[in-house]
Amino acid sequence: MIAYRIDAIGDLVKIPPDRVEACLRDIAYAVAVHHLSFGTGSESVPFGAVEWTDDDNHSVRVYDARGAKFLELRVEDEREDGE
């Protein structure tokens, strides 16, 4: 499993082409959690960087402008096939 740090939109080219869609989906989940966490004031708490882990568990860490981690999303799906 590989983690990718995204400081700017151009950093998305580091991600293998077949995994970009998964990365963007997981970042979208993190943005949704950010809005839920901070409510109407969420725009005043901007993202600094995002670290996405290619592990199929929707793992995203969000850092503030100083580089401190302030939000982490990890969803583990333990359902068996067919459920």
What does this structure look like?
By secondary structure, this protein is α+β, with helices and mostly antiparallel strands. It has one domain. The chain is 23% helix and 23% strand. The chain contains 1 helix and 4 strands. The protein has one helix at residues 20-38, and strands at 3-6, 49-53, 59-63, 69-73. A 4-stranded antiparallel β-sheet has the order 1-2-3-4, covered by helices on one side. Strand 2 (49-53) and strand 3 form a beta hairpin. The longest helix is centred in the middle third of the chain and has 19 residues, at 20-38. The chain is globular, with a radius of gyration of 13 Å. The mean pLDDT is 84.
Name the average pLDDT: 84
Query: What's the total helix number?
Result: 1
Count structural domains.
1
Based on helices, strands and strand pairing, what is the structural class?
alpha+beta
Q: What does the radius of gyration come to?
A: 13 Å
With strands numbered from the N-terminus, the spatial order across the biggest sheet is: 1-2-3-4
Low-confidence stretches: none
How many extended strands? 4
Shape: globular
How large is the share of residues in beta strands?
15-25%
**What is the helix content?**
10-25%
The SSE order reads EHEEE
N- to C-terminal distance: 25 Å
> Sheet bearing the most strands, described?
4 strands, antiparallel
